[in-house]
Specification:
This protein is of the alpha+beta class. The protein contains 10 helices and 12 strands. Bound molecules: adenosine-5'-diphosphate. The site of adenosine-5'-diphosphate has 21 residues, from helix 7 and helix 9.
Length: 455
């Protein structure tokens, strides 16, 4: 069943059932109240009749008294205790029906041809000293007429109310469903065309549907951006892998042709093959690092001695590359962070400083309020201002040919950015072409509470 039909059916039926229940209640209440009023009047009449009988010492013609108290469209019967009839008077059109009052009831009722007949009984002492009961019957014609009229009115009201309910349900369901149909249409179009379609008209309002449309559009934007990024990444990656593979391929062929007869060529070829395969290995390792789902990484946050860590990383690079790393770090700077990840971050930045400069490299760390700032300064080639905004993009290199010699992949800073985001570290860059570059890391001393709790 379609949603539209479901909404129609459910709301209309629910409303109709409610209206019918209310109307039924009104009808029954009215009927009960009118019968009660009639009962009270009949009881009053009966009591007056019994009082009159008791006051009269001699009754020449009891029929005259009974008639004068006889209800219109009714009857009075005087019966002995065992039910035997003593006297009866009735109006001409009145038809007797079998009615019995139980001990718990004040009156008895029965319907005859759609008209209720009520009976009440009042006990008294008859002139011969025996107990008798005065039975008063009355046909409630007015109650029947008014009740029928009310029934008619309530049915008419129900029908009259049902029409606007039906109409309003139709309007309401189209208000709700139209945007959903539109959304469905846009989604189907996106799926069949493979594009990232958006909803335009619905986004202006402030209601939930406008909210859904806005969220949908934002989601489409995000998907599109991700898709483009992914495409870019794949094309960059394949391009990057193609170059070393071509080099390896051509040197291997050279080796096959002439390598073993010429030691110089063989050495050159093998060196190139080793270099390029190392480069490929690094590239693949970095790509895997970037491809990791950052949402689900588990950080191991602990209090670490940052001064010590900086000393260690510098020492390793100093020994590996025989370069001058000058460390000016305050003693015992402790921070809460993930040791392995911050170490990786330092490696990337210090290694870049080494790659893109020939002179000494200065590393300074100072505590500043709630943060420790670490500046890694080199006196190398520097980065032009217009290139700074792209520096952290994947595969971005300031000048493709310039970095080929350094063996860079253009992924180091992208990884550094991911790591710093993960550790809530801010990275600042300050560079002048031909003078040098300073990368500054601003590390929070206390790792943000929420993140620690999530671990
Ligand atoms: P790569 O593997 O090429 O070094 P990165 O992502 O680490 O990739 O760096 C991106 C680019 O930023 C580098 O290619 C280089 O041009 C530039 N760069 C990074 N660090 C420095 C630096 N300290 N001095 C000069 N240029 C730098």
């Amino acid at each position: 069943m379609k949603l539209r039909t479901k909404i129609h059916l459910f709301t209309t039926l629910l409303m109709l059932v409610l209206i019918i229940l209310v109307n039924f209640g009104v009808y029954k209440l009215y009927e009960q109240l009118s019968i009660n009023t009639e009962y009270k009047q009949l009881e009053l009449r009966g009591e007056e009749l019994v009082t009159t009988f008791n006051q009269l010492t001699t009754i020449s013609d009891p029929y005259i008294v009974l008639r004068s108290y006889m209800p219109s469209n009714g009857a009075i019967r005087v019966a002995k205790e065992n039910g035997d009839e003593l006297l009866t008077v009735s109006s001409p059109s009145f038809e007797f029906v079998e009615l019995n009052i139980t001990s718990r009831e004040q009156y008895a009722m029965k319907e005859l041809n759609g008209v209720p007949i009520i009976l009440i009984e009042i006990p008294s002492i008859w002139s011969d000293g025996n107990v008798v009961k005065f039975q008063l019957f009355q046909q409630l014609n007015d109650v029947a007429t008014n009740r029928d009229l009310l029934k008619l009115i309530l049915v008419a009201v129900t029908i009259l109310i049902a029409i606007p309910i039906l109409l309003s349900n139709m309007v309401l369901s189209s208000i709700i469903l139209k945007p959903l149909e539109k959304l469905n249409h846009v989604m189907s179009k996106s799926r069949s065309s493979g594009t990232y379609e958006k909803i335009d008209e619905l986004t202006a309002g402030k209601d939930e549907l406008a909210e859904i449309s806005r969220t949908f559009n934002e989601m489409m934007d995000a998907l599109e951006t991700n898709y483009l990024k992914q495409q870019q990444f794949v094309s960059n990656a394949s391009h990057e892998l193609k170059t070393p593979l071509t080099v390896i391929d051509s040197y291997a062929k050279l080796l096959l042709r002439r390598g073993f007869t010429n030691e110089k060529i063989a050495n050159e070829a093998l060196e190139a093959i080793v270099n390029e395969s190392t480069r490929m290995k690094d590239l693949i390792a970095q790509m895997l690092e970037l491809a990791k789902n950052k949402e689900h990484v588990t950080l191991s946050i602990e209090k670490i001695n940052l001064s010590q860590l900086i000393e260690n990383v510098s020492l390793q690079l100093r020994q590996a590359y025989n370069r001058d790393f000058q460390v000016h770090v305050d003693k015992d700077l402790f921070v809460q962070t993930d040791e392995q990840r911050i170490k990786q971050l330092f490696y990337i930045l210090m290694d870049n400083a080494r790659k893109y400069s020939d002179k000494e490299i200065n590393i300074k760390a100072t505590r500043d309020n709630q943060y420790v700032s670490i500046a890694i300064q080199d006196f190398g080639i520097g980065i032009p201002d217009d290139q700074l905004p792209h520096l952290f993009d994947r595969f971005y290199r300031v000048k493709q040919d310039r970095n080929r010699k350094t063996g860079g992949t253009g992924l180091g800073l992208a990884i550094a950015k991911d790591l710093s985001d993960l550790l809530h570290i801010e990275i600042q860059v300050d560079s002048t072409v031909g003078v040098g570059t300073t990368f500054t890391l601003v590390v929070p001393i206390l790792f943000p509470e929420k993140e620690v709790d999530n671990q």
